[in-house]
Amino acid sequence: MTDPKTFLTSIFNAAVAAADPEKTVRNHLPAKPKGRTIVIGAGKGSAQMASAFEKVWDGPIDGLVVTRYGYGASCERIEIIEAAHPVPDAAGLEASRRLLEKVRGLTSDDLVVALISGGGSALLPSPAPGLTLADEIAVNKALLASGAPIAAMNTIRKHVSTIKGGRLAAAAHPARVVSLVVSDIPGDNPALVASGPTVPDTGSREDALASIAAYGMKLPASVMAHINSPAADAPRPDDPCFAGNEVHLTASAGVSLEAAAAEARRRGIEAVILSDAIEGEAREVGGVHAAIAREVATRNRPFAKPVLILSGGETTVTLRAKGKGGRNSEFLLAFAIGIEGVNGIHALAADTDGIDGSENNAGAFADASTVARMRAEGVDAKAMLAGNNAWTAFNAVGDLFVPGPTGTNVNDLRAILVR
Q1: Which domains does the chain possess?
Q2: Dihedral sign for Cα atoms in the order 226, 229, 230, 231
Q3: Which intervals hold domain MOFRL (predicted)?
Q4: Which of 13, 178, 313, 326 is the most exposed place for a label (fewest CB within 10 A)?
Q5: Nearest Cα to Cα of residue 367 among 332, 392, 395, 393
Q6: Cα–chain-centroid distance for residue 174?
Q7: pLDDT, tens digit, for every residue of 313-326?
Q8: pTM for the complete prediction?
Q9: pLDDT, the chain, mean
Q10: Cα(117)–Cα(121) distance, rounded to whole angstroms?
């Protein structure tokens, strides 16, 4: 076998390649309209989706897409705007305003193609009447620190917005809206990707309030007053304005995990997929994965080694301190603690969009020696985990994984090699 890091990197690359917009967009092109074709979009992979769409659409188009700073792509007919993620900014606010303006005044002969990928929730701040950008920023920070699952977060987000929860598609009525969605949501519900700007769901104000209470979120009084009022109600999926619209899932964690498994088998290593929809506290999920890896390494069960153990989904981090990190590096630090000294285990945990948290790494590598190497550098792995400071810990031993922006986003990839 090649070096374990090289092997695990090839697994990550295979997963990302399976979600490449150049391959996936052309398989879901809508019928051409009698009238205009307007392309809109939001998310960390949406600029690359826009570039791919331009290459395969042979009719006239006009469009606007917003993505994260540094995640742009070359387009000739679709304008790309960059804004902040994971905390919204004024550029995102202006992008939301322009997207809503772009789809107004269309007719039933027109077509709106929506290119939606994960990250769109933060990139599309559009506060409800009576609320401000500062309110949306406060909501976003509270959500990120809460440890709530992404589905709960996005149900709350859509109830303080004028663009999420299907409202962007409603603004385009009576034009037909076809949404091409790259899912980063466990379970692949397209209405939850980017808080569903063009795809409504059944989540209610009551659901949002229940999650706020369950996770002890402290939101501004103005936000709570709004969510408690009928003005916060989002459009329902059975609203006639959505009749005739289409939604196509173009890429998902499940497809990418299968591609990763196929790449491992091509290289002579059997692969197993635990799940593509794992959620929960990152450090706890890391501990469970470590227990599985130890069992394989020491007892050759429940899988025979050599084997590659794969999983996907989206864990969460409840912030207890102000360290540097992200859910994948936090998962992996807990994992590294759990496999300390158990030889033959090598792991990579990374976000398929290329960014884990607020730094420039997608995740990190770990093996049986990781904690000992950290200790040699004066780093206490358990203290780093307690302080949400996984980035600092892995940086100290040179084990950060930095592939750069990938142009897609199908959630987290965890790949554990037991030799």
Answers
A1: 4-14+254-418 (3.40.1480.10), 20-252 (3.40.50.10180)
A2: negative
A3: 308-412
A4: 13
A5: 332
A6: 30
A7: 999 999 888 899 99
A8: 0.86
A9: 96
A10: 9
Alpha-carbon distance of 325 to 316, in angstroms, equals 12
Strands 37-42 and 62-68: parallel
What's residue 2's pLDDT? 73
Tell me if 276 sits within 8 A of 254, measured CB to CB. Answer: yes
| Of 279, 293, 282, 350, nearest in space to 13 by CA | 350
Rounded to an integer, the average pLDDT of 389-394 is 97
Spell out the residues 6+ positions from residue 288 whose beta carbon is closer than 8 angstroms to its own.
none
List the strands of the sheet with 78-83, edge to edge: 78-83, 62-68, 37-42, 111-117, 176-182, 246-251
Q: Which residues contact 121 (CB under 8 A, 6 or more apart)?
A: 140, 153, 154, 157, 164, 194, 195
CB distance 14 to 260 below 8 Å = yes
Backbone torsion region of residue 118, taken as left when φ is above 0, otherwise alpha when ψ lies between -120 and 50, otherwise beta:
beta
DSSP letters, 192-230, are GGGG-SS------HHHHHHHHHHTT----HHHHHHHTSG
- CA quadruple 402, 408, 409, 414: dihedral sign: negative
Q: How many H helices and E strands in the chain?
A: 16, 12
22 Cβ partners below 8 Å, 6+ apart?
A: 52, 55
In Å, what is the CA distance from 184 to each residue of 86, 119, 214?
15, 9, 23
Closest CA to 25 of 41, 44, 43, 48: 48
| CB crowding 309-341: b at 16 or more within 10 Å, else e | bbbbbbbbbeeeeebbbbbbbbbbbbbbbbbbe
Angle of helix 4-17 relative to helix 253-266, nearest 10 degrees?
A: 140
| Two tokens, residue 364 | 């990190």
How buried is 199 (Cβ within 10 angstroms: 0-12 exposed, 13-18 middle, 19+ buried)? buried
pLDDT in tens, 43-87: 999 999 999 999 999 999 999 999 999 999 999 999 999 999 999
How many percent of the chain have pLDDT more than 70?
100
Q: How far apart are CA 346 and CA 281, in angstroms?
A: 22
Q: ω into residue 220 within 30 of 0, thus cis?
A: no
